[in-house]
Amino acid sequence: MSHGADTENIKRQFNIGSDLIDYSSNINPVTPMALKEAIIDSIDSIGAYPDIDYVDLRDKIARSINRQYMRSCDILGSGFDDSILDNQRLLSRDNICVGNGASELISLIFRLDIFDKVRVLSPLYSEHIRSSRIGGKGPIISPMKDIYGSDDKVYLSFEDMDLARDPREAIVVCNPGAPDARLRNLDFLVDHCRTYGKYLIIDESFMDFCEGYSYNSGFKYDYDKIIIIKSLTKIYGMPGLRLGYMMARDESIVEKVRSIQEPWSVNSLAQAGAMAVLEDLDFLEKTRKSYKKEREYLMDELSRMSAIDIHKSDTAYILCSLNDRSKYDTAHDLKMDMVREKSILIRDASSFEGLTPRHFRLAIKSHDLNEVLVDSLRQIL
């Protein structure tokens, strides 16, 4: 199995050690102090089994989602279906399943018997393709099709959408796109799934880095066949702890996933850390503002480099591609030179379905490290 975060292999291969700067993994460089303190304070909990039902954690996640959505609506103004905020439609712990990172939940969802095959909208995170194959559900791979509206929104469709009418087919999409970093409006896609009775699986692992939660999250849609996957690993800077969750308005979907999940997949320390920060909405807002500022800086600097083309980003990373003016034929060659000459690791994005050997991805980090990346790319390219 191959993932982008191959830092340890690279360190061993090039004998770099701790000097390697990793721009391949899209992790918040700021881990909340409250999370670290909670882990230290909970260290004695490792002597006992964690709650097998994760009741307190699931309660906290549900409250956090409800509060975040309502606060986002208040900030952004009117224009939303108020019925979504009716107490009967707010989430409870019965709408939540937690897991050992988003990847575990992806694997479990594709083992369910509620759909027979999977249509993935590419490009997207490779774990969806891998898990659908293991689960015996395909996948069917359909390229995304963006429709630009007069309201400046990008509406998501896919090729041959009118012909895809099988109700036993689930559609899978990453929003924002992984790896292309674009936020898309899913109105057309939700209408399509509602018309044919399909399940829609939305991977929102990087949604928390984006502005406009209420505009963009699948939470806003009143459709019971939507399954949303979220990662806490990225936004809270805790990849070593592994924690993600899925939510669905249909509680029976959540129960089906929990029924096939291994017991105690989320450890006590991960639970304690998450409990300490989940309702800290100010941290999320500060993170989004910081990422917006650094995203604009990086995109401006990268756009000045004649050898690469950049894709618009709405989240924690930027997708780029080498053009005809580049001295490099492939992103892999660029990656290797960046490691050898600058001790910098970027993500060769050629393994993503729908991309080319010339695509690569850059994680957005602190301003000082973003300056290091810009200077290094200028020298290498």
Automatic annotation (TrEMBL):
Its EC number is 2.6.1.-. Belongs to the class-I pyridoxal-phosphate-dependent aminotransferase family. It is an enzyme of class 2 (transferase). GO terms for molecular function: lyase activity; pyridoxal phosphate binding; transaminase activity. It comes from the Bacteria. Residues 274-301 form a coiled coil. This is Aminotransferase. PANTHER family: HISTIDINOL-PHOSPHATE AMINOTRANSFERASE-RELATED, THREONINE-PHOSPHATE DECARBOXYLASE.
